[in-house]
Amino acid sequence: MIFKVAAFYRFAALPDYRELREPLRAFCAGRALKGSVLLAQEGINGTVAGAPEAIDAFAHELVRGDMFGGRLDNLELKFSTAEAMPFGRLKVRLKKEIVTLGDAAADPTRQVGTYVDASEWNALISSPDTLLLDTRNAFEVAMGTFEGAVDPGIGSFGQFKDFAAARLDPAKHRRIAMFCTGGIRCEKASAHLLARGFAEVYHLKGGILKYLEEVPEAQSRWRGECFVFDERVALGHGLRESGLRERSLLKQDMGPGRDE
Predict the structure, then answer these.
(1) Count of domains observed in the chain
(2) The CATH number of the domain where 7 resides is what?
(3) 35 has a pLDDT exceeding 50
């Protein structure tokens, strides 16, 4: 059986997020879905896997079902496949933030950077006056990144604001293009930089996964593999599994936790 995997997020006001936990968990459990879903007042973030028809029903419920009442209509959603179930169990957790930065001024529901589609990304990052910034953790960057990207050298996304304070200057870095696995960290990071006075902040819409899905390998500026927080470990162009599943040493060094 080939499993379908859905990675998704949406920044949206969910003041009733605590009450949504059990209905969402029951919906997933009733369709044998496994994976991780985070709910917070600022939105939803997660990755789940299961039978293709079950994943399709799940995606429909998030976007058009009664549970969220249309509040996730612009859900960022990406599909891929797995030869084996990539998760051991189902977790639906309540969090203060769906991706942890710890900056109250960084509110993606109010302002975010400019989205750049995968088809336009190469042109943007080829410009010499653009600072290309990888917002992911150091162990993810070590597995793969875009040519010429700056590695902030962080152990968790919560450290990004410290990196920005020490290394980025609104007067010097006039144009910043950032990227992450699925797009969610960039939304928070771009909101943070805009709040600090940076003028031009861009981010890759749909993240690396959307780029690897849409941009032909022959035209790609991506080098290496894209780490994902499940048992597939990493994906390549066309969102193909990389074969790193068997490298148990790497699995033991996945870092402090799931950021996307």
Answers:
(1) 2
(2) 3.30.70.100
(3) yes
pLDDT of 247: 44
SS3 at position 45: strand
123 with 88, same domain: the answer is: no
* pLDDT score for 244: 53
- Mean pLDDT estimate for the chain: 91
Phi, psi for residue 85 in degrees, rounded to 5: -55, 120
For residues 126 and 219, state if they share a domain: yes
186 part of the active site: no
Pick the catalytic residue: 28, 180, 186, 226? 180
Q: How many helices (H) and strands (E) does the chain have?
A: 8, 13
- Over residues 226-244, mean pLDDT: 79
Residue 202 CA to residue 220 CA, distance in Å, equals 19
Structural domain for 209, as ranges: 114-241
